[in-house]
Write a structure and sequence with these properties.
This protein has about 575 residues and is of the alpha/beta class. It is built from 24 helices and 15 strands.
């Protein structure tokens, strides 16, 4: 019997939203190499947000899935990429109809929890699809987050006995999962315990009774945070804390980009000459200014602020990017810190490149107001910046990551582009950023966080900040931040509402200190600044790799020994292993 591995994921690089899509670009192929088994990535076909070329999809079969007492036909579409991606496309357009991203499904009178409905449908369909793709294969499933965890119900109901492992990229969970919902999705609830009396468990609570004991997450520190961090363990997912405590294992992600700084420049930096790096960054800034000039001619609402103010004046550039998530990303923390920095006489330019999240452009109104108060110092580009983004990332002096929590984080992407990081000491950022011990922002709270990871002798790669430990434990503030009450306020201003919380104020204050630290380093010690870039590159290359990540998955999964299989090749025209 062939043994094979299936990644079961609700999002992929073809239908992205967050970090899972990025991981799916790299991990499956490395797991295939490490295990010697065939690997398939199984995902829904989100027909409103599919970013691949439809001509690259080939139907390799079809299955029928019971739902709501009816049989739904589901096409299996194979993407020509390597490794094998198979998308499940129901003939009924009711399912997988997210608009801005795969999870963007709005409740209505007929369906209060459409995402839960679709996840259960996907969980059952995924098992049937794997049986179709190779009826003789013994599958090991790697389910991603709670939406993928629903596959454990399909496996249990079918009685296949396939081992299901779970990876948590965050602590999000479903609402209550009633037996009737499982029945509606064609799943036998008696095989999926969890509903007892008046208490109804969530998908993760019920799935954790079925998946293998090892539960994975994407960094070793985030595994700790799920158990010990007040925001995660007490506010976001208190119902998972004790179940995960003896089971959660952090496996660090690898690197998501390649090194952009020319090797000869980094060799000069390592020899103590930072000028070539600064010249390279100046070239990138020139490209940014050219892009901004072209953008200004077109005007419109493609930017907020005054691009013409970003002249060649050698001021530090602080850069922040990524999809806006009000409960995680920290754009509001950055805005508050930037205003405090500028009000205190700090000299710098700020470029924010937020991709609007579920709150849309309106949710970023606090950034627009900041540009109105400081148009010469703050620029916001709340859309895809095709011509200037990469140059801004590389030309920036520091990248800012003031995350409320961070499973892994994009710090390594900054380093690969020659830009050191300022980050809040949380999750994977703690592991990726070795703090500058002489920085004012390197408080006792930061030292407490980094002690398990970085020796005192470790070479600094960036600046970490953290509010006081006793402030972090203010559960009332965390609860209020997580509740996002500003959404019901007349002006809907996220920043003005959160500035009422002492915890938030302290976060912004500590980031402001870090901004002053960064400016002083850049102007006062360019050689040390260059060394920080070189140290960052060396650190992330030494600590994070997809080979190591895949090897850990294979080691921890039962039966992870290497063997060679060639399923799908004759039946579905599969790829050849190198």
């Amino acid at each position: 019997m062939q043994r094979a591995i299936a990644f079961v994921t609700y999002e992929t690089p073809y239908t992205p939203c967050g970090g899972i899509a990025a991981v799916m670009r790299f991990l499956p192929s490395h797991v295939r190499t490490a295990s010697g088994r065939e690997v398939v990535v199984l995902s829904p076909y989100h027909h409103n947000v599919y970013r691949g070329n439809p001509d690259d999809l080939t139907q390799v079969g079809a299955i029928t899935v019971l739902f709501d007492s009816q049989m739904v036909e589901v096409a299996l579409l194979r993407q020509t990429a390597d490794p094998l991606f198979v998308f499940l496309k129901p003939k009924n357009g009711l399912f997988f109809a997210g608009n801005r991203h795969p999870y963007d499904l709005q409740p209505n009178q007929q369906e209060q929890q459409p995402l839960l409905r679709d996840a259960l449908f996907f969980g059952n369909a995924a098992c049937l699809a794997l049986s179709y793709l190779d009826p003789e294969a013994s599958w090991t499933l790697l389910a991603q987050d709670w939406e993928g965890a629903a596959t454990a119900f399909g496996v249990a109901s079918a009685g296949s006995g396939w081992p299901v492992y779970l990876t948590l990229h965050n602590s999000y969970d479903s609402g209550g999962l009633f037996d009737a919902m499982l029945l509606r999705a064609g799943i036998d609830p008696h095989t999926c315990p969890g509903q007892t009396g008046k208490k109804t468990a969530t998908v993760l609570e019920r799935a954790l009774l079925l998946v293998r004991p090892q539960v994975f997450t994407v960094s070793a520190q985030f595994a700790r945070d799920l158990i010990d961090d007040p925001f995660q363990a007490e506010v976001m997912a208190p119902h998972l804390r004790e179940t995960l405590r003896p089971r959660i294992i952090g496996i660090d992600n690898g690197l998501f980009t390649t090194q952009a700084v020319p090797s000869d420049i980094m060799a000069r930096v390592e020899q103590g000459d930072s000028q070539p790096l600064l010249d390279w960054k100046k070239e990138k800034r020139d490209k940014v200014r050219a892009s901004l000039a072209a953008m200004q001619k077109n005007s419109g609402e493609s930017f907020w602020g005054n691009p013409g103010a970003f002249v060649d004046d050698n001021l530090p550039w602080f850069f922040m990017a990524g999809r806006d998530d009000a409960r995680q990303k920290g754009y509001d923390v950055a805005a508050a810190a930037a205003e405090s920095f500028l009000r205190q006489g700090g000299k710098a330019r700020f470029i924010f490149c937020p991709m609007p999240g579920d709150e849309g452009l309106a949710g970023l109104g606090f950034l627009k107001k900041l540009t109105q108060r400081y148009p010469a110092h703050v620029l916001v580009i709340p859309a895809y910046w095709r011509d200037g983004y990469q140059a801004a990332l590389q030309g920036a002096t520091f990248g800012i990551m003031p995350s409320l929590y961070e499973p892994f984080g994009m710090a390594s992407e900054y380093y690969q582009n020659g830009t050191p990081c300022i980050g809040r000491a949380t999750g994977g950022l703690i592991q990726q950023i070795v703090p500058l011990r002489s920085a004012v922002a390197c408080s006792r709270a930061v030292e407490d966080c980094v002690r398990p990871w970085h020796a005192w002798s470790a070479l600094s790669t960036g600046i970490l900040f953290r509010e006081k430990t006793e402030s972090t434990r203010r559960l009332s503030d965390w609860t209020a931040i997580n509740a996002a009450g500003y959404r019901n306020a007349p002006d809907g201003d996220r920043l003005s509402e959160r500035m009422a919380y002492p915890l938030f104020q302290e976060m912004a204050g500590e980031l402001c200190k870090a901004l002053f630290d960064a400016g002083q380093l850049y102007h006062g010690d360019p050689g040390r600044y260059g060394s920080m870039v070189a140290n960052g590159l060396q650190h992330i290359r030494a600590q994070f790799s997809w080979e190591r990540c895949a090897g850990e998955y294979c080691r921890l999964m039962t039966g992870g020994s290497k063997e060679s299989t060639k399923i799908f090749n004759s039946k579905h025209g599969g790829h050849n292993e190198g």
